[in-house]
């Protein structure tokens, strides 16, 4: 029988804080600033190559800068919409500005890797600022991956939830910076519960839970279709999920320590309604990043 490894109370507080931070305007503004610096570096490389008469020789021609600018525009639009409280920018659909912003970064991250490993060849002698461009590509990719892995919707909509708690995650949490005092995980008075495969009514932080069994007949028990109010026991790890998308399955470990995908019931523990009133929560001023 599969069973989840559950976070303890401190782990839950840390995970709740982390998911709020990684989905915050502050986090994605930081990424946008890195993206701007990356685009500026590409522009400087193109300008230097043109000034030297190397525009036909450089490994970073003007069309590459134009591609990066398109990604930058999507990233800026994503940040602007997020600032207005629009969480659809995290989805993998026509609203997914950050998904579209990621495409040039993916291309150039792979391109840099191919050049560095010798799988692709460019004229480095006539490619100004190549090392600086590589460094900025790596910096942006690291900042992006830190947030995107747990926040952006996967292109594969039947994927299980990305965050699966285990000892590796506990060790990672122990190494991450957290405030001395963490906010408690909310305990809703009235529960909103959605089964895997059903549409989520809002974006926010959801947690798998066990619903109580109720007696439907003298010898027949079935899972309740409606969740009772009050606390419910966790059945997995909380995740940031997207309103309008279907609730995902989760991955758990079976008795042989093998991962198994199972359906679950997701309970809303925090609705993400940040920025709708034009303000930024005070706690974001204390967010720190590696």
From TrEMBL:
Immunity protein domain mapped to chain residues: 6-162, 190-287
Alphabetical list of InterPro entries matching this protein: Imm71, Imm72
Coiled coil ranges: none
Protein name in UniProt: Immunity protein 72 domain-containing protein
Any Pfam family the entry gives: Imm72
């Amino acid at each position: 029988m599969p069973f989840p490894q559950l976070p303890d109370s401190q782990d839950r507080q840390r995970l709740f804080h982390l998911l709020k931070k990684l989905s915050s305007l502050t986090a994605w503004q930081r990424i946008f600033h890195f993206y701007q610096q990356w685009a500026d570096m590409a522009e400087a490389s193109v300008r230097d190559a043109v000034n030297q008469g190397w525009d036909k020789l450089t490994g970073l021609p003007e069309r590459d800068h134009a591609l990066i600018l398109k990604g930058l525009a999507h990233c800026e639009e994503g940040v602007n919409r997020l600032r207005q409280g629009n969480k659809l920018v995290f989805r993998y659909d026509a609203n997914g500005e950050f998904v579209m912003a990621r495409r040039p970064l993916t291309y150039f991250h792979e391109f840099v890797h191919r050049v560095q490993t010798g799988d692709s060849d460019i004229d480095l002698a006539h490619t100004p600022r190549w090392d600086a461009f590589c460094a900025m590509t790596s910096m942006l990719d690291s900042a992006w991956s830190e947030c995107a892995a747990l926040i952006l919707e996967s292109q594969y909509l039947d994927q299980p939830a990305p965050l699966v708690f285990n000892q590796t995650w506990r060790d990672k949490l122990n190494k991450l910076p957290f405030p001395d005092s963490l906010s408690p995980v909310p305990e809703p008075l009235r529960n909103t519960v959605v089964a895997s495969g059903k549409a989520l009514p809002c974006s926010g932080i959801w947690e798998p839970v066990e619903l109580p069994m109720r007696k439907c007949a003298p010898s027949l028990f079935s899972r309740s279709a409606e969740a009772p109010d009050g606390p419910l026991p966790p059945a997995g790890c909380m995740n940031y999920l997207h309103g309008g998308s279907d609730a995902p399955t989760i991955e758990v470990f079976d008795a042989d320590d093998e991962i198994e995908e199972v359906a679950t019931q997701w309970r809303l523990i925090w609705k993400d309604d940040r920025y709708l009133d034009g303000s930024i929560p005070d706690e974001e001023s204390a967010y720190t990043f590696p």
